[in-house]
Each structure stands twice: as structure tokens, then as C-alpha cells.
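Protocol step 4 of 6.
Sequence for Diguanylate cyclase (Amycolatopsis orientalis) entered exactly as in the expression construct, tag removed. Do not edit the line below.
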Amino acid sequence: MDPDDLDGGTPDTRRPSDQDSSPANGATTCTVGVSNPPAGTTSRHASLVRLLTELSTERDHRGDPALAFLSQGYRLLEQNSDGGTLGTQYLTMVEASPYGICVHQRGKVVFVNSAAMRFVGASVSTELVGLHITDMVDTGSQDALLARIGSLAAPGSFSEPTEMTLLTLGGGKVTVESQAVLTTWEGKPAYQVIMRDLSTQKAAEAGLRFQAALVGHASDAIIATSPDGLVTSWNPAAEAVYGHELDEVIGVPVSEVVGAPMDPREVVAAGGVVQATHFSADGTALAVRVSAAEMFDGYVLLCADETAQRRAEAEFATVVETLDEGVLVVGPSGRIELANSAAHRISGVPEGSLIGLESRTLRLHDERGVPVPVDDLPSARVRRSGKVETGRVVQVRRRDGAHRWLSLTSGPLMAPGQSVPSVLTSFADITERRAISERLAYEATHDPLTRLANRTLALNHLRRTIADPALTTTVLFIDLDKFKIINDSLGHTVGDQVLRIVGERLRAAAGHSDLVGRLGGDEFLVITTGYTEAAEVRALADHLQRRLAESLTVHGRELHINTSIGIVLAEPGDTRTADELLEDADLAMYQAKTFGPGRYAFYAPIMRERVQDRFILEQDLRNAVAEGLIETVYQPVVDLRTGDMVAVKAKSRWDHPVRGPIDPAELVEIADDGDLLTIIGAEVLAKAAGEISRWRADHDVHCNVNVSLSVRQLGDPTLLQLVQTTLDEAGLGPQDLSLDVDETALKDAADAVDALRKTGVKVTAERFGAGYSSLAQLCRLDLNVIEIDRSFVADLGRSSDAEPIVAGIMAMAHAVDLVVVAEGVETERQLKVLHELGCDWAKGPLVAPPGPVEDLKSAYEHVVR
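Step 5 output, C-alpha cells:
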């Protein structure tokens, strides 16, 4: 219905023009709903005013002041014949009302009170009077407005209160509750609208909805109770925590629904917060923190379920307590607030005694053994930096005197309200791990057999010393002469013990600050910075050799060790590296060996050329052996008493394609260095046995075959089998073969000599007199022949000392029934002296030079007789 269509309460399809508008507010000739009321009595007026007052205090079903009192007033005024005074009072009352009141007639606003102007932001009534009523109403509320107006059929009837949105003059909107009354204005039908501003109510309702949402979505149980403890409110979280639905608990004592005694008054009296154990509907125990507050109609309880937290705390405490690592918490005051059992055990103190102690009472030392200052303790460092520190290693010195190594990890703990953080420190006892690490580090840098420095440590030490510009560094490279004989003949157990003794002697003989090391095998090293002159170093080398040459006894055997020493000096400014210095010392050691056993030599640049030349020669020899270019030659051995050839000595000869014939002694040395001596020796043995056997048969001559055995061959476990196979293939008996062994090797090869002699093979001691010759040795070894070293034979006729020495050797040999052979006879004078001294056999250039088997016939026919 259009509000314009109003005429005596009957709708009209014609919308009036603006000339039909009513006067503005404040016209003295008009009263709302009154047209010159008749006169009446004063008591009637007083009754009406009293009735209006009563009506104004009436409350509707929602508890608000009745909006209907105005329409009731209109009806009373219409019935009152004397409405002048009463109408004026009523208008005053309308103007002062907090409710907005608007009167519109035929769609036009004819009256607004101050409250209505305030609602829409008008300062004077003329801003509103004359407007069409729909101009003041939001489009969304217009249809409902028209419907309400259309429902009013009789004067005095009124609509139900309904929300409506007004449009303010400033373009805003305001929500009001409105109620329309069909009344009269200046005797004509009109509508009076009474409006209540809902802004405050809406804000309050929004606040209540927000609070309700908080309560509804809170994770903690929120319970409201009456003053006597009956549940009046129960949020969803309470349902989840306790397992009771809302309709199950309303009006039920709170103690019953939480499964434990609960008096809100007592909680408030206790300070408002208590810890309690409640039980859910299924009997599950709950750890609950209860907060209580009193409100106007009872109590509100906030029950925080801390069951999971308490369980986690208990589990955490159990985990911390069972850790192998120590855990400490040092509070802001510097005192220990928490310590687990491992912390007490590692610290060596009784359980619980750490709590309350100042952290500085723990005696910590760094890796150098220096006490850790108070301001460098883990708690102090973390408080300064605010950062986590890991992997710090310290030593704690316990009350029982034990020292334990710890690996620390420390970090800050900032609790709410703390301005200074606590510090959490965990520590592991790494004493055993550190000992293992140190042992592994030691083993990585030390020789396991002698416990001396190994090559790695020696080179590192050498690098440090040569880097110091103030030091002169001396390197002595030491090699044991003929150590292979000991290892091969007596076994590695004896050899290892010899190496240990040598290491101990070197350590004792060297200076306190010198580094003594073993490079491997029988090679040792001394690095010293205590000498600057070559003469001083010579004295040191002499001292070391004398100390090492002292006899030693291993497993009941007396042994003697000679050493060859290579020496290199590195003065300040020397540009050679540690590896180059070690290599040069090695070269000097090999040079010393060329001088004979027990010698030393200083490095010279030419040595490198010799070594390179030696290496090339060794490769050439290896190729010659593979190609069968090593020739076997034979030298007759004659009996000086009869002139008969009693034996032939088989020798190896190598004719180098560039260098020509290689000296037999050098050939043996090269072959030994290149591990070729065993191969060459086996080939010579087989070839000599076969060729001499055939030669004897062809010429009907009986003579023995003499073949030298190297030290390596003596230690070969297949030697006896090789000898037997060679004899069988050659058709010789064991008595036809003599194996010649260097005299210096015999003292450590008694077992091998005994085994050979048991086969019937003869054994000759070569170069007798060049080593440690003694009658005891001749008696101990089962020998057949001794061969006097050529150095003594060469001096016969030239040195007056030579004859007594040779005579003495022959006397010792003949005393134990040994045949004596003179090696290297070159002159008639030598031969004559040997005859006179009673020498048995001789060989050498004068007797017959070495040659191929084909030359033996002529040699046999021309030997001395």
C-alpha cells in the first residue's frame, strides 16, 4: 500500500501533491490527534496524565518500555473533550522521549521529534518535514514498511515492533525498531511511527555473540554454575573434555559432572586457581587446572585439561632422567636448578647434590689443562651471545680425583617473564671415545712394531723443522746390513724382535728432542736439529753405529748387526722439501752400502745420477734374465798337493750390450736388490749340475760342482726339494755337489746348513775371515770346506800380517778337519806361500780363469800340478 493513499483509513490510488502537506512542527494551532477538544473537568485531565505515566512505565513481553503507550495516549486524548492542556503536556512528553517519533500523512512527513532528527542526522525539523516517508527508509526496508502500514485498518490500531533501516542525511544507515500507529493529524487520518535506536543493542548483541563464539570455540571447558553449584552453562569444550552432553548436565551439581569434589566458593577463596584431578564420563583421569570467578548470579569455572601436558612433562622427565648424557639447567642466578642422574654420575657427586650449587663450583679445564674462567663457563658464554654452542670439549676434575672429558652443548632457555635466560647444558662423557681417538691417532702416526714415529709423522716433523729459518736439520737414514739373512733364515719372529731392540737402542742413543722413526722393513730414521757442523754429525753417526753393533741375543741366539747410514744436512734457506730430503738421505745410505757393511756417507748430488744409473742397470738385468742372456761359466779348483782339479766353481756372467762384462760382485748386488738372485741362483744350479755331469762323463773326470747360494735361497722353504730335483735330473749324487754360503750368513743359517748336510750335500763357507770368523762357529756348523777371502790372499807376499792371519785360519780349519781353499790366487808368490802354509786347494786367475764349459778340457790339462 502506498502511504499516500490514506483518507479516513481508506486507501486512495491518487498520490497527493505537495500542496496537501501538513504544517511544520511547532504550529500552535495543532495538536496531534486533537481538534479543539471540548471542555472537561480537571480531575479527568489528571486521570489521563496519570494513566499515561503508568502506561509509559509498562513493559512489553521483551522487558522494554511499551512503545504502545503513545497510541494509548492518543486514544485517551481523542476521548477527552478538554485536550488543550493535556495535549500540550503530551507534546512535551513526545519531544522529550528517547524514542524517535515521526508522523506522516498521505506519504509526507508532517512531524518529527528531536530523537528522530538525531537518528538521521538532522539539526532542524524542516530538513525532514515535507519529505516523502520512503525517502527516509532504505530500499530493503520499504516493502516491510508498506506492509505494516497496510495492516492498520482502524484508528488506534498498531503494528508489531519491526526492525527497519533508516537513511541518514549524511548517506549512512541506522537500524531502528519501529512500530506504526494509525491515528489522526488535524482531524485527518495519519500514521505515527515510534522508533527505538538499536545501535547500542546491536553492539551489545554483537559483543554477546562474540563472547558466545569465544565460549563456544574455546579449547578449555567453561562451566557456569548457580551460587549453590548447579550447572547453568556448559560449552562444547566441556562436552569434549568430560564426555557429557549439555542437556545431561544443566541443573546437575558440578561435582557430579566433573567426577570429583568441586566447590566454586572454595576455589575462589583459595585464590581462584587450583590443580585438580577430574574424571570424564568413561572414567578417564584428567589433570585439570581450575580457575574460578564469581559473577552476579553464580560462578564461572574455566577448566583447562592439562592431561596431555602433564603426561608429556612426565615423559620428558623420564627421558631426561634415563639419558646417558648429563643435563643441567642453570638459572639466571647462576645456580643449578635441574640435574639428571647422569649429570651426578658423570660429575662424581651424590644424587641430588648438584641442585642449588653455583655452576662455577664445577671445576672445568680446557684441552690444554688450563682452568676455565668464570666468565668463560658455558652459562656465561650463552647468556652473552644468546646463541646455542655445540661441541665444546672440557675436562671436569671430580672430587674422587678422576678426570673426565666432556663434550658440551649449551643453549638459552627464556621462560615467560624472564629478563635473563636460564641455560640448558647437556654433556656426554667422551673420556673413552677420546682415549680411543688418541690411540687411533697415535697408531696412525707410529710404527706398530717398534712404537717409533712412522713415515707420516716423520715427514710432518721434518716439514716443521725445515720451515724454521733458524734451524739446521740433519736426517740420518739407517738401514740394517744383511737383515734379510736374519729374516729369511731365522724367521720373522726373530726378525721382529731384532727390529724392536734396534728401535729401543736408537731411541736411547739419540737426543731427547730428536725424532726417531721406522720407515718400514729394516729402515730407520733420526731427525735432529742439534748439530750444525759435519764433524758433529759424523760423531753422532759413529755413536749410533757403535750402539747398534753391540751384540744382542734373541731366542737364545747371539746376533750382530751392522748398519749403513745415509746423511743429509739442510741448512737455513735449503729449498728441498721434506720428501726430497728423505729421498736424498736414502741415496746416501745406498752409497754407504757400496763402501761395505757398517759405513755411512753424506749426500752428494752425484749420488742421484748413480742411483738412476743403477735403476737402469737393474731393468736391463731383469730383461736379460727373461731372455736367457745370463751366462754360466766355470772356474777350476785344484788340489795344491797333487795338482788335480778337484772341483769347478759355477759363476754367473753378464755381458751388458753397452757396458760390457759386469763385475760378478756387482751382478750379485744388482740381482739381490731387484729380487732376481733366487731366479738366477736356481738357473745356475740346474745348468751347472747338468753340464758338469755330462762333462765328467765325456772326459772320465771326477770333480765336484760348487754353486753359491744366496741368503734368499737359504730362506727358501723349497730349497731342499730344488736341490734333490736338480741332482736327480743331472744324475749326480749329493756328495758331488758343494753349496757355497757366504761366511757372514752362516751364523744365522745353522738350521738351513744342517738340513742341507743331512741330504749328503757338502757346504763351503765362502769369504771366510771377512765376517765374524771364530773357532766356535767352525765347531758349531757342519761344514766341509772353508774358502779364505781373497783380501787375505791378495796381501800374501806384500804384508807381513797376512801370513799369520792365513796360517791362523788354516790352523782353525784343520783342527776341525775342514778343507781350506784359497780364493783369488793371482801370483806365483801367493801360490808359493800357500804351499808353504799347507793350504789344501786354490782357485784364481793363476790357476785358471772362469770360462765356458767347453774350455774346461784345456784348463784341466794345464792346471798346476
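Step 6, annotate. The chain has five domains: 93-215, 218-309, 323-436, 452-603, 618-863.
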